[in-house]
Write a structure and sequence with these properties.
about 0% strand, 4 helices, mainly alpha
């Protein structure tokens, strides 16, 4: 839409010509600063909600890991043998370390 059409649309909508040297009629009377502020506020809310969701997921994963470690340490030998059947070799090493109470860092050492 060209400038002339925007000006006519503004006049049709508001009943008078747009102010001279103004960008207001370019967006049909919408103040672009308000739009930018609302958009920034929306992004801020979305990022804050995402941050909270990641924190909650992290806490739940940590709780699940602690429960799994406790379960591995307290299960009977028969349950432990059955548990190991479905695991890959690396996971078996982790389970054995947990079972024996050996502390391993994230690198496996």
């Amino acid at each position: 839409m060209n400038r002339r059409q925007k000006k006519k649309a503004y006049k049709k909508r508001y009943g008078h010509n747009p102010p001279t040297k103004s960008y207001i009629y370019q967006a049909y009377g919408v103040d672009m600063q308000n739009v930018a502020d609302a958009l920034a506020e929306g992004f801020r809310k979305v990022f804050y909600a995402a941050k909270e969701a990641v924190e909650i997921i992290g806490k739940k994963l940590a709780d699940a890991w602690e429960k799994t470690k406790e379960r591995i340490q307290t299960m009977t030998e028969e349950e432990y043998a059955e548990f190991l059947e479905g695991l890959e070799p690396e996971a078996r090493g982790w389970a054995a370390a947990i079972r024996m109470g050996v502390k391993k860092d994230d690198t496996g050492n």
